[in-house]
Amino acid sequence: MVNWDGKYSTADGLLYGDKPSGIIDLATDRFPDRLGHILCLGDGEGRQSRALAERGFNVTAIDFSEVATNRARQQDQKRGLTVNRLIGNAAQPPEPEMVIDSCFLCFLHFSVAERQACFRWLKQALPLGGLLFLEGFGPDQPQHRAKYMSGGPEQADLLYDTTILKDELSEFTVHHQFCAEVILDDRPGHQGLAQITQMICEKVR
C-alpha cells in the first residue's frame, strides 16, 4: 500500500500540480446545470475540487492523506475558496449529511474490492439522474509507464478499463467514453505520454 502522507511530504510543492484533469472542463462545459452539490473522492491536494469551486460550484472533497488535505486547505485559503474537506477512505465514504448530485473520481486507483465498495456506496448516495465522472489511467498504461515514465500503477486491476467499469456500473447510462493517448503535464507526479480513460455516467436506476 502506498504511503500517501510520506509521498506528499517529500514532494517539492504540489505533487500533481494545480491544473485540473480534463474531465473537469468537459463536465462544466456539458453539464453545468446538473452538477449541483459535487463530491470529489480521492481529491489529494485539491486540484479538481479547487477548479470546481473557482467556477462557483458547491464542493465536498474526501482524501485519505492528512498531508494532502492540509495542503489543499492552505491553497483554498490563499485563493479565498470554500471547499468542505474531509479526511477519509474513498472506499468507505461517510454517509453525507447533505445531498450530493454528482461525483468525481480522478486518478483514484484502488483495488477491485475497494472500487466496487465505493461504487456500491455511490449507487446509494447519488439520486436518479446523478452524474459520475471518471478519469484515470487506461489498461495499457503499464507499457507507457515503462517507456515514458508517465506515472500510474503497474497492476492491471487498478487501471480504468471501460468494459469492466461499465459492467460494475450497470445502473448507469454512459454518456461519454474515451480511452486514448494524451500527454500529461501534472508537475512531477504525472509527466509524458500516457493512456487515459474518461467516462461520464448517469444513474438511471
TrEMBL record:
Residues 38-130 form the Methyltransferase domain. Gene3D superfamilies: Vaccinia Virus protein VP39. Pfam families: Methyltransf_25. InterPro entries: Methyltransf_25 (IPR041698), SAM-dependent_MTases_sf (IPR029063). This is Tellurite resistance protein TehB. It comes from Pseudoalteromonas tunicata D2.
